[in-house]
Amino acid sequence: AYNDGGRRFPDIHLVLEALQWEQIRPVGDSPSARYLHAAVTLDSQQGMFYIFGGHGFSGVPLNSGMMEVWMLDSPAKGWELVVFEGTPMTNSAGGFIFADENCAAVTINTQLPANRAGHSAISMGSEALLCGGYTTNQMSWPGNGNDMECWWFTPAPYPRFDFLKLKSGSPVPTVRWGHAMAEDPKLGHALLFGGISKGSTVLNDCWVLQVSNSVDPSAQYEWLSCTPTAATALKPMPRYGMGAVFQESSQSFFLYGGFAWTGTRFASMSDMWVLEDFADILKVKWSQVNAVSEKPTAR
Questions:
Q1: Dihedral Cα 167, 170, 174, 177, nearest 10 deg
Q2: CA dist., res. 126 & res. 247, Å (int)
Q3: For residue 8, what pLDDT is reported?
């Protein structure tokens, strides 16, 4: 059980005696060593695990060209490099045309994201949403000027990327890496917090992307701020590298840890915060969660 000094949240119970780690020893080729990549599982692809991009040990993100995507087939314990039809790898003209269920011609993969590191990816039902990151040693940023770039990834019937389209006049989070994201599966919202922007500014802003329970990559969406506006409002310190999760039963967005700017130095954190009423800018608020038991060390 835990509380924020007044409001009690639903208990979380873990059965630990049956939990154990097992190292997977894949058959065949595997992704090269990397860090600052992103990973998701998708409702429509049971048993499949996808990883996107990442930072190699040569000092720059892996593969300076298009986004590198690998899929792990968990039952078969094998990795597969995902091929995007219509890309220069398969078609020098770019783009791939196929007929949908209504026999209409659909062209995909005319644009593809550059490979990157420090980005975030979340599952949005049958699609994944990838946002942010940097492309060359934190010196090159994908996107339009200072606007953060996002992409939809759809694995079937053919793997494809679609640029996230925004409604006219929609605000856009600034470019960043090391941010945290989580999905509200009930209403289909995507939430984003913090990270590091151009110029190494550490952030503690909050954004919500209004989607729905059914994603349409061709539709236009809108970002809205979920940062409390009151001058005295409590907020987590600016940070990056934190963990985030959305709790559906309480409609709350939780953050834990990260590397925070304390005002004089960077420090790893062991604090937990919860964001409530994120869809209403007049009611939204952050509260620090005070555990009544032992808690993980700073990280």
A1: -50
A2: 20
A3: 46
Structure tokens at 217: 């990559």
Can you list the alpha helix ranges (DSSP code H) found in 136-270?
Answer: none
C-beta separation of 287 from 234 below 8 A:
yes
Task: Measure the CA–CA gap between 17 and 201, rounded to whole angstroms.
Answer: 43
DSSP string, 220-249: EEEEEE-S--STT---PPSEES-EEEEETT
Count of CB atoms situated within 10 Å of the CB of 257: 19
Residue 67 CB neighbours (<10 A): 23
Residue 16 pLDDT exceeds 60: no
Distance of CA 267 to the CA centre of its chain: 23
Distance in angstroms (rounded) separating the CA atoms of residues 262 and 268: 10
Amino acid (one-letter) located at 245: V
Residues 115/66, Cβ–Cβ less than 8 Å? yes
Tell me the per-residue pLDDT of 84-117, one tens digit each, with 9 for 90 and over: 887 654 444 567 777 677 778 777 778 888 888 8
Which token pair is 35?
A: 């860090």
Q: What is the pLDDT of residues 207-264, one digit of tens each?
A: 999 887 778 888 999 999 999 988 899 999 999 999 999 988 888 999 999 999 888 8
d(CA 40, CA 63): 20
| pLDDT confidence band for 63 (50 / 70 / 90) | low
Report d(CA 16, CA 239) in Å as an integer: 30
Q: Tokens representing 92? A: 């020098």
